[in-house]
Structure formats: structure tokens, C-alpha cells
Amino acid sequence: MKISEKYKEKQGEGRLPKKSLSFEIFPPKKDSELKNIDETLAVLCELEPDYISVTFGAGGSANCNRTIELAKKIKYEYHVEPVVHLTCLHYDKKEIDEFAKILTDVGLQNILALRGDRNPNIPEKGDFRHASDLISYMKEKGDFCFLGACYPECHPESDDRVSEIKHLKAKVDAGAEVLLSQLFFDNKVFFRFQEDCRIADIGTPIIPGIMPVINAAQIKRMITMCGATFPTRFQKIISKYEENKEALFDAGMSYALSQIIDLLASDIDGIHLYTMNNPLVARRICEGIRNII
User: Fold this and answer.
1) Which residues are catalytic?
2) Topology given in CATH for the domain delimited by 3-289
């Protein structure tokens, strides 16, 4: 089933639209470890997400194979719709054609189209410069539903906020039907971004991405990687509890829940949870929002 259809389904007459719940996981680094991910999937799928996205590493078919094998497991063994991440910067048209055929053959329709991070050790092929190029090309190759990434605090390579929104509009015009946001820790940032998108006539569902922070090294790494704002309230939490693992876990969960509850009380379409393959995180969050999503 195409993910975009789930959002249309939720707009039933005479009732409040149900918010979506989705998770992101990453494939194990070794094929032999795919068997060990069942414990994580059992918990995640028991929580009844609308879909689970599976990340994709650049440079080589092995990454693709693990992503697809995990997506197949989610769809056919756990009966939850998967979303396959697909990067394009390091692939040419022939390779993307091969991916499209594989996805079609195994019945995977939903693709999170991404440019991919630049890597000095992996050559860029030049056929696809942006995710919008990938979407435009692949929509002629099969019956796919495309999701796109969005960045409430701008992509690290963006010139400014105006160019960021222009690029996002191009992605939507190319065929992205649902947008999943990069993580953020200040809801005001997301609401401002959401308003900018509406002004730019971007009417697709924009799903906020939330990452519960459960250790200090994780938060410092994520802020360095994606440039997310570190609110003062959150800084105090990290500073006070970073030497106490259990206390920081609880505080991180509470902060993420406060973000999610605030978002759900506003005009958003759902929540995308970056689980870091930790089923305990997903379960704790879902227990906290069971009656409001």
C-alpha cells in the first residue's frame, strides 16, 4: 500500500483524523545479524505503526541488499508497510534502474528519495544531483510512492532559508507526496518551518521527526551532524544528568514526550520516531501517547 493513501484514509468524515505513527530503523552492518533484528521488530510492530522506514548506506550493492531484505521482512513477516530509503548521488541511471526493478519485483512501493551525503571516498556519478532528480526519473520506472526529507533548520549545505524552501518545493513538484523532517529539539522551529511551507504552497503532509536522546554523546554527535538547535531547557537537562545514565534516559524520554504531545495538540499529521533500533525507546514513547494519537 502506498503511504500517501494512508493520509488520505485518515481524513474520514465525521471524525477527527487519526495521526500517523512511524519509526525509522537501520539494517545491521552484517547480513548474519539480520536474524537478530527480530526482537526489535517484534516490539516495534506490536506498537502498530503505520509504516517503518529503513535506512540505506551509500556505495555498494550490499547496503541495498540489507535494506531490501529488512524491508521485505517488515512487510511480509510483520505485515507493516516499509519505506525504503534510496540515495542517488553515488549511483548512475543504470544502477537506479536495477534498484527500481528489484523493488518492483519484491512488491516494495514506498521510497524515501534522498540525495545522500557526500563522501570523499565514494565517487559521485553525476546523473542525479538532487533527490528531486531521482524522483522525476524513478516515477517513470514503476508504480512508486515517493517520500522526501525536509529540514526545519535548513540542510547544512543550503545557502539560506529561502533557497531551502525553493528546493523543497521542487522536490514536491517532482512527485514527493509525504515529507519526513530531520530531527529537531525546539518545536517553535518546526512550526515556523511548517508555516513557511504553507506560504510556499507546499500542501503535502509534513511529519515531524523526533529523536529521544538517551545519552550525552548521542546528543552532541547529532547536533554536530545536523546542526539542530540545542534549546536552553534541554541544555540544562543534559548538563544536570549526563553523568547518570538512568536519570538521563528518563529525562530524555520526558523531553521527547513533551515535544510529541505539543506537536499532536497542534495541526500536524503524525510523528516519525527515530528509534536508533532501540525498542525500549519506542515502547516508552508509545505508552506515553497511547490515548492521544
Assistant:
1) 24
2) TIM Barrel (3.20.20)
